[in-house]
């Protein structure tokens, strides 16, 4: 018995060409024969991808772009987690944070400023977490990350040069800020390029 292709054996209503019975359910279940008359049916793919599109989807450039976007999402999630944790510590335990960064005998009012700083970090963490779901759409948060890291690094170097803080107090923060800012620049998301269709000859622009 010849095997019929679905494009020939099945009409628009998915019926068997031999007995004219509905075989939609049988096709969905993966059957290769009509359940009524036994006519063999060769399923055909519902959509065919052009060779150019298939090659583009598996090209090294497409793979690198996908990996780059995933790395950016991981960076945003990690940054959000660190900011949320640090913000919570600044709010709940400002004195312990002062001691951890080698600051001693500070006025009591400094704890208020540290707590307010913690509120800023927690709310920024929420923004980074949302940006991780779609970095291209929320690219402004990537730009904020670049600016934040650069300003933190610059300010830390200025206070370090003036002798206001020691390297033991500010060195770690300066290096982390520089690494984060550089990572955001390296993983900055670009809008995908749209390829214009060729204009047929003789057509008006």
Main sheet: strands, sense, barrel: 2 strands, parallel
Class computed from helices, strands and strand pairing: mainly alpha
Strand content: under 5%
Order of helices and strands: EHHEHHHHHH
Quaternary structure: single chain
Look at the structure and give the mean pLDDT.
80
Cα end-to-end separation: 55 Å
Would you report the number of β strands?
Answer: 2
Read across the widest sheet, the strand sequence of neighbours is 1-2
* Number of domain modules: 2
Shape: elongated
Report the radius of gyration as a whole number of Å: 30 Å
Short description:
With 205 residues, the protein is mainly α.
Write up this protein:
It is elongated and about 90 Å long. With 205 residues, the chain is mostly helical. The longest helix is centred in the middle third of the chain and has 33 residues, at 60-92. Helices cover 61% and strands 2% of the residues. Helix 4 (60-92) crosses helix 5 (94-100), helix 4 packs antiparallel against helix 6 (109-133) and helix 7 (139-162) packs antiparallel against helix 8 (167-186). It has 2 domains: 1-45, no CATH class; 59-186, no CATH class.
Summarize the helices and strands and which ones pair or pack.
Layout: E1 4-5, H1 6-9, H2 24-28, E2 41-42, H3 51-57, H4 60-92, H5 94-100, H6 109-133, H7 139-162, H8 167-186
Parallel strand pairs: 1-2
């Amino acid at each position: 018995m010849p095997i019929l292709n679905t494009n020939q054996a099945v009409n628009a209503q998915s019926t068997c060409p031999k007995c004219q019975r509905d075989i939609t359910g049988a096709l969905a279940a993966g059957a290769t024969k009509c359940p009524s008359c036994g006519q063999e049916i060769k399923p055909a793919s519902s959509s065919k991808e052009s060779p150019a599109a298939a090659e583009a989807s598996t090209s090294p450039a497409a793979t690198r772009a996908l990996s780059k976007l995933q790395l950016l999402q991981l960076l945003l999630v990690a940054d959000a987690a660190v900011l949320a944790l640090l913000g919570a510590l600044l709010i709940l335990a400002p004195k312990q944070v002062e001691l951890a960064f080698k600051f001693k005998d500070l006025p009591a009012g400094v704890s208020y400023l540290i707590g307010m700083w913690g509120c800023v970090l927690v709310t920024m963490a929420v923004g980074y977490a949302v940006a991780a779901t779609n970095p291209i759409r929320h690219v402004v948060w990537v730009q904020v990350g670049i600016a934040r890291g650069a300003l933190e690094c610059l300010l830390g170097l200025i206070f370090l040069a003036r002798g206001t803080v020691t390297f033991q107090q500010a060195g770690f923060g300066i290096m982390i800020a520089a690494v984060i800012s550089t990572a955001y620049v390296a993983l900055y998301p670009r809008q995908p390029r749209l390829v214009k269709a060729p204009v047929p000859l003789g057509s008006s622009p």
